[in-house]
Specification:
The protein is an alpha+beta fold and 181 residues long. It has one domain: VC0467-like (3-Layer(aba) Sandwich), CATH 3.40.1740. Helices cover 19% and strands 29% of the residues. The chain has 5 helices and 9 strands. A hairpin with a 5-residue loop joins strand 6 and strand 7. The two termini are 31 Å apart. 34% of the residues are buried. The model has no long low-confidence stretch (mean pLDDT 90).
Length: 181
């Protein structure tokens, strides 16, 4: 099963505290492993600080979305998730419109008000070697649901609860205890 463009929802059985209540968009998945970005853990770093560190002039007067902690791997690298359908210098196609871009040209486009579609920046990503993610799912660390733009780009909602709701689950229904008859 290919999990690209699916959401992983951390369960109470998640053993890694860095992923407590995480919602991860799987951007690439194959027999060799998987890569995804956490879409619901805000960072203390602002987009304006990213622009300053890259020495890019901010010509955009609109409010920038919150920067998120995308995962514990490559935390110095920025990944911009966007639904423009446009490819920049370094873009990974997730579906027909959804892309993950790591090149500076997209940040310049945002600063120049050339990118009006939905987008947000995460710092870092999450990766799994071949079979690791599948084992974590089998161990009940993750639930899986289809991705949708409302969950990805809505800035005001609790993405963990919203992703659970897609599955028809309320957060209070989850438990890390299993019963035996």
């Amino acid at each position: 099963m290919n999990l690209t463009n699916q959401l992983l929802i951390a369960t109470p059985d998640m053993p890694d505290e860095r992923f407590q209540k995480a919602v991860i968009l799987i951007c690439d998945h194959s027999e060799h492993g998987a890569m995804g970005i956490n879409i619901n853990h805000p960072s203390e770093i602002t987009f304006e600080e990213v622009l300053e560190s890259l020495k890019i002039n901010n010509n955009n007067t609109s409010d920038f979305p919150t920067v998120h902690e995308g995962g514990p791997v490559n935390t110095e690298c920025g990944f911009i998730l966007h639904n423009t359908g446009l490819a920049f210098d370094s873009s990974l196609k997730i579906d027909n419109k959804l892309r993950l871009t790591t090149s500076k040209d997209i940040i310049q486009a945002i600063a120049n008000k050339e990118l009006a579609d939905n987008w947000f920046l995460v710092l870092g990503c999450a990766t799994w070697v071949g079979g690791q993610l599948e084992q974590e799912i089998a161990d009940n660390a993750w639930l899986i649901c289809p991705s949708n733009e409302h969950i990805l780009f809505d800035k005001k909602q609790d993405k963990w609860s919203a992703a659970l709701n897609i599955l028809g689950i309320e957060a209070h229904q989850l438990s890390s205890h299993i019963g035996h008859a």
